[in-house]
Amino acid sequence: PAVILPTGTSQDHLIVKEREKVIISCNSYGIPSPNISWYANWKNGLNARLYNNKKDIFVNYNTVTIFNISRIHNGSYTCIVDNKVEGKQSKSFKLEIWYEPSIKMGNDVIEQSQGRETMIQAIINGHPINSIQWEKNSKILNLSANKCFYIGRTKKYCFYLDKTGHFQEQKAQLWIYNLSAIDFTSYRCLIVSPFGNIFGTTKIIEFKPINHDSWDSYLSIANDYRKLLNTHKNKKAIDSNIESNKAIYFQNQKQNLNKSLFINFGEKKELEYKNSNSYFYFDILVAFVITITNLLCKYI
Fold this sequence. Notes:
Elements: E1 3-4, E2 13-17, E3 22-25, E4 28-29, E5 35-42, E6 47-49, E7 57-60, E8 63-66, E9 75-82, E10 89-105, E11 109-112, E12 118-127, E13 131-136, E14 139-141, E15 157-162, E16 170-176, E17 186-193, E18 196-206, H1 212-227, H2 232-253, H3 259-299
Parallel strand pairs: 2-10, 11-18
Antiparallel strand pairs: 1-4, 3-8, 5-6, 5-9, 7-8, 9-10, 10-12, 12-16, 13-14, 13-17, 15-16, 17-18
Helix pairs in contact: 1-2
């Protein structure tokens, strides 16, 4: 019967770095000489029988050679030996591909208010990853991965590691609760691997809503500019621009402005607009009186 010999057969677990070459051997013996078939079960979900593809895989009876190996070749490989005598024999090999890690931060800057919570996320790829650490101002936060949704917010920080991403992608999340002044600073996610250390940084800054005085300053500048105009046509265009900018202003800041403050702003702008219209109609009345007086003086 066909047998797989330990001598000349590869180890069960093979570790290869990306872009290198690997040879998997399955040494067999039998009378008559057995046929050998090769199959791959890749971690990306694909299963296939292996043939020469003239690109990166070469099958030569009892060996499989993979050139310029990449992470897509990660998985298990099986040789099946059969000479039609007393059944088949098989052996599987685990092929583990090491490749350099990469990190991408969800945000470079996060803006949040005091007393609120926020989450910093780092998307990590690479294998193997020895450790993932979070640092605040270059000082390590001693954290272990938890289900942050179930801690009841009793802690200042929570580290959650999501491994459900595509292939070997991981999402490292740092949750920070009840933000105070000392929390508005830089945070770093540090990745330790056999290829060296890499990191990504996110800065948290305090969100401060624009106050009443800022809008007053805008109106003051707009009014000064309007005084430089010589015609009522241009004045009307500037009025329209002010109204448009005011609408945009309140739309962007509505979550931070209370109702009473909005009403005060509205009343102030409405009064200003009414006063502006009053001057406009007064100018027309004066011009009309002057014209009538000139006509009377000319013909009487």
